[in-house]
């Protein structure tokens, strides 16, 4: 019985760690401005971007290039310590930037800019990712 309770406790601890990462989302800065597709293109198109994604179950950072000419987001991502190549389709729909890997449903976010950073923001106004241009 003690082993079962210990195992349940360990599992609960691990799951709480995963949820704590997913829940600890940064706030959108008060001065961040929601931008249009044209403003976003002028800000980030073809430039190297350092990205940190906050709402996944594992920590994700990436070095990416958003290319509107090619319609892609490409680069390398570190997913919980494992390096991966990134190549996603890039579109803009209903005022949101959308990306999707082959065979996946598009993932869309509103874009806000503040200084040298852009914020990908979910419909519930929680920050999905923060990217630094340059």
From TrEMBL:
- Keyword Signal recorded: yes
Q: Where is the signal peptide?
A: 1-22
The protein's UniProt keywords, in alphabetical order, are: Signal
The domain of life for this entry's organism is Bacteria
Name of the protein this chain belongs to: Uncharacterized protein
What organism is this sequence from? Rhizobium leguminosarum
């Amino acid at each position: 019985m003690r082993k079962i309770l210990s195992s349940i406790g360990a599992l609960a601890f691990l799951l709480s760690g995963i949820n704590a990462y997913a829940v600890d989302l940064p706030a959108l800065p008060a001065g961040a401005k929601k931008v249009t597709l044209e403003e976003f293109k002028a800000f980030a198109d073809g430039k190297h971007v350092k990205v940190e994604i906050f709402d996944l179950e594992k920590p994700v950072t990436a070095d990416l290039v958003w290319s509107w000419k090619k319609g892609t987001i490409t680069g390398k991502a570190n997913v919980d310590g494992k390096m991966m190549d990134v190549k996603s389709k890039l579109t803009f729909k209903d005022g949101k930037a959308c990306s999707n890997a082959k065979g996946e449903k598009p993932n869309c976010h509103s874009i806000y800019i503040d200084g040298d950073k852009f914020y990908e923001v979910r419909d519930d106004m929680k920050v999905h990712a923060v990217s630094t241009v340059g």
